[in-house]
Amino acid sequence: MSEITKTEQTKAHLSELISDFAHYLGLESQAGDLLHQWVGLSILLVASLVAWLLALFILRFKVARLVRFSKTHWDDNLQDAGVFRRFALVMPGLALYFGKDILLVPDSRMYAIVSSCAILYIMVVVYSVLQAALSATEQIYKSTRFAKKAPITGFIQVGRLLITLALVFLVISELLGKSPIYLLSGLTAIAAVLLLVFKDTILGFVAGIQIAANRMFNNGDWIEMPRYDVDGEILEIGLTVVKVQNWDKTISTLPSYSLITEAVKNWRGMSESGGRRIKRSIQIDMQSLDFANEDDLKKWQKIAILQPYLESKKLALEEDSKVLTERQLDIINGRKLTNIGTFRAYIQAYLTHHKDVHKGLTCMVRQLKPTDTGLPLEIYCFSRIQDWVRYEGVQADIFDHVISMMPVFNLRAYQRITNAKAFTTADAVLEASHEQPSNSQ
Asked: Taking the model in full, what pTM does it have?
């Protein structure tokens, strides 16, 4: 009661001073009231300016100094996002809102205008502060180790949308002089329209929750989506769109919900496994397949990594031959070494000893179904090198060696016969042109 009494006394005293000043100037009662309103408004504007400068000095300079010398980094993000600077703008609105009761006549039109303007101004400034705080929160979270595992960009955008909708409702309710609940009660009538307008936003929000909860995709994941011709790394998972940088450095923008409604290949498992798959076959000319003879065995015995295989096979073949002899069966029906089988064992041993082949993942050499282009001999293993350029180098080195070793095992790679006559003719023409005598006299 004492505070109310003091406020009333201050208002009465101020009104008396302004009335005396108007009477001194010889103004009538109506003109004196108008002078009262403008003088009060002028004082309010000056007080608001002073409040803003004082708050700016404290928050932008004093607080900024404390932030600069602090050991934590989250306050630096708040400073960079402009949270403190924008918060200082709230003070003029508060000065107008609380000062109007002292300096303005409550029933006047100017009082109502200043009151509405102050409320709208405070709403807009608080909205700006909250938006800056959300930006700072996102930057703070990105600096943590959880950022790649569970991005929050979609949730930040949902927060921005909710704050914007709240501002729109509050501004409309203030302009109409109605309660926000009154506006919300009529929202059901246009719910269908809102569902159409915000369809992508709603679908994206639901998709964002599923992606974050199930850890389906993270920033930095390599994905492939043939339908959208996407093959690259996820840059950002937003509320409504996903940005992917393809390997040709183009940027693809996809709807967020497409990640859960379309077929997507995620290569994250490869990165987490520590290896990158090599799966490629060589077409072997089947006319070069044959049994191994003594000369072949002597030659292959000189290959160190192949000696354990040959020793074990020699023992197995001798045992099999002994059984056939005891049964008086023809030796031709017994087991024999082949060049293709020995070559396959050599490749397996070579991959086992290769320093860049992952030892903890599947590594095998297998035959595929023969075709009219030969017998496919497939190498299936994983490279320890995941970097694209170095990985291609490892894969090329392996096949360079394998193809070069084929003649050692009397094997040929299948290759379609090309017309080499054109090249021979061209070489002959070029050579003949150099041998023609000059026409110089």
From this structure: 0.51
